[in-house]
Structure formats: structure tokens, C-alpha cells
Amino acid sequence: MTTNKNDKFNAKTVSEEGKNVVYLSGELDLSVAPDFRLVMEPLVGDSDADLTINLKELKYIDSTGIGILLSILKARHSMNASFSVEEVPPQIQKLFDMTGIAKFFEPQENSQ
Amino acid sequence: MKADQTVTLNLPATADYVDIVRLNLYGIASKMGFSYEDIEDMKVAVSEACNNSVLYAYGQEGGLVEVIFGVNGEELTITVKDEGVSFALPQDTSDATTLHDKELHDVEIGGLGFYLMQALMDEVSVSSESGKGTQVILTKRLTRSEEKV
Predict the structure, then answer these.
(1) What residue of B is the nearest CA neighbor of A74?
(2) Among A6, A29, B19, B46, which has the minimal tally of Cβ within 10 Å of its Cβ?
(3) Dist CA A67 CA A96 (whole Å)
(4) CATH number at B5-141
(5) What's the CATH number where A84 sits?
(6) Structural domain tally of chain A?
(7) DSSP states along B72-105
(8) pTM
(9) Per-residue pLDDT reduced to its tens digit, B123-141
């Protein structure tokens, strides 16, 4: 259900040679968690390419979304493949810091 | 807003309606004068309480979640109630864990929702009665020094 166009979750993938970047926008919560998992699954399995999620336009994330990021971290780590987040909005960074997931992300120069 | 008014929502216990709770919370909390940051904190906490009802309270059967916003001049109390099977509470909710002391291979995903509720609200109380569902009460006090929405 869409209540507000700006809040509707969307994930757009840009693939270049050796690198996949997923741009998230809207609200990532329980209701769209299956969609997000579906988008990420093939990208997480592509161990030859670097994987980055750009959060600049993400308005909201809940513990379900953080849980998915955590499972991606685990999967990529076990494959010895890279995974990072970039342009994390302050409100979302706060949740990453509070829950402790922040320490598992590789440092990014362009994070806010 | 006058003291001791309530706004009640009755919603299907499905994930599709949790954003409706956030929208109502935004409207009420901004009317009361909460700061942007406090409202964002409450959005996360309330959604986690609703998620618990959606995920654990009713299994496959469609049930209802009742959300009561209690407006009392200086504080906002949000009660999230369901009548489903109680979800598994941590033995002591102060045990709700974070990932801070853990290595990646030790990490388990459950429990973050409870931790966030506690960390983001001033008070959290959870009561659960077998066969009668679960009630989560979240309280945030208004601090007047911060920037208003």
C-alpha cells in the first residue's frame, strides 16, 4: 500500500564492471522486506563484484531492514567479498550506531 | 492540545498498515511540539512494537492491532495492543542485546527491535498475559528546549 509517493520503497541497481551499487529510497520496513531481499539476492551471490548500498534517499529503516543488512554482511564476509554502505543519513547512522551494526561496515569517505 | 486526550487506531495486523501508524504518530507528535529528532525516534519505536504484533501475535490468522495515542500536555504515551498469542519476550527486557560486543559470526538478528524501543523512548513497559495478548506502552516526554518541527 502506498500512502505517500515520496515514502514508497524503491531499490535501483546500477551495475558497472566489477561493481554493483543499489540505490535505496523511501521507507525500508517489514512490509517491503521481501522485495528488498529479492533485489539483493543475486547481487549478494555475485562474489566477483563489489557491492555497495547507497542510502542517501532512504527515509526510514526498521530492525527488519537492519537485520537484512546484517545477513548480507554475513554472507559477503563468508564469501570474502566486499560490502559497504554509503551516504548514510544522520538518522539512520544513529540507528546503526545504537544497534552496533556500524562497526561491521567498511569505513566510507563520503558518509555524512 | 488539552491534557488527557486519546486517539485510537484499529488496524489489521499486517505489515502493510504499520506506515499508517507512523503517519498518525507524526501528526500527533508534531502538533504537541516534539522535535524532529524525537519524532523520528518514536517512529522507529512504535513501528517495532507494531512489527512484533504483526509477526508474532496472530500467526497466519488476520487479527487486529490497537494503537492508542495518549496525549497529556507534557508527554505522549503510545499503547500498542494485540490479542494474539504472546510473542517470546526476552526473560528480562533489560537483556535485549545489541551487536556491540559481538563478532560477525556470533551475531543473531532477533532482539534488535526491543533494544531500539528501550533506547529510543523514555519509558517502555511490556505486559503479556497468556491467551489475552500483549500490550506495549511507550512513553516520550516533551522537552521544550529543542528545535520544533
Answers:
(1) B104
(2) A6
(3) 11
(4) 3.30.565.10
(5) 3.30.750.24
(6) 1
(7) ETTEEEEEEEE-SPPP---SSGGG---STT--GG
(8) 0.85
(9) 999 998 777 788 999 999 9
